[in-house]
Amino acid sequence: MPDRARPAAAGRPAGATRARPAGSKPARRAPAPGGARIDVRKTYKLFIGGAFPRSESGRSYPVTGPDGSVLAHAAQASRKDARDAVVAARKAQPGWAGATAYNRGQVLYRVAELLQGRSAQFAHEVVRNDGLSPAEAERTVAAAIDRWVWYAGWPDKVAQVTGAANPVAGPYFNFSLPEPTGVVAVIAPQASSLLGFVSVVAPAAVSGNTVVAVATERSPLPAVSLSEVLATSDVPGGVINVLTGRTAEIAPWLASHMDVNAIDLCGATGPLADDLAAAAAENLKRVVKPGDEDWTLTPSLDRMRAYLETKTVWHPAGT
How many domains, in total, are found in the chain? Predict the structure, then answer.
């Protein structure tokens, strides 16, 4: 039998389509199974005060791999972003320093747990950024996780190692007690995007300091991914802030900032390091000068000690 034509709706001629309400959008068809799709590109932003803002200047710069291919565009921080990061670090410092040493250790250990869970992602980024083989990248990521665990064990021990009960002539107790310096600026090493970054940021945060870190200029992507780990861990906002961009543009403003108490020049070399050290002298910042570091070796306590002030306390005996 021939197909029977569907009767037209009342008031509408046969073959006419139903009109859409004004302002409505046509329904979109789902992509066919197996059809090509466009990946969601990751936006690499700054990490300031626990949030991920874009640079206030609106700038970004291309991040390339060892073969010259463009991997992503990272936010290019300005001096205003550096000042905002210092403000966030200063605001967070009293609470972080006031937490118990055991609590700080637990918080930092949680970061290592999350790093372990995302180790495959970090290994992939290290391969793309640093040009290492997959096996070398896996070893680098494992070393970075182990390094973070190593530092996470120190918050409740560093005072015992660096402090002292001093013998005095008189009816008094005399104690030397380590205290955090305050806000520490860190220029991350240029040759190690993840392990080097962890090796300079973690010791500054262990003892109650807050950190403004300038990531490796050439390969900042692992540091930005690490900031995502920090954001989803128990680390309070502002304790560790991560800036990406041109080291020569950002670092001078951190070195001369009057509310920064110490600066690690690990990632600055040559005349830039000398200029930053001279700028840091304006408010008597502690300066950790760059050196030939082998990040694969077990670290010493030197970087933790560099960010500690020693307070001497006298107390009458017998009261």
Answer: 1
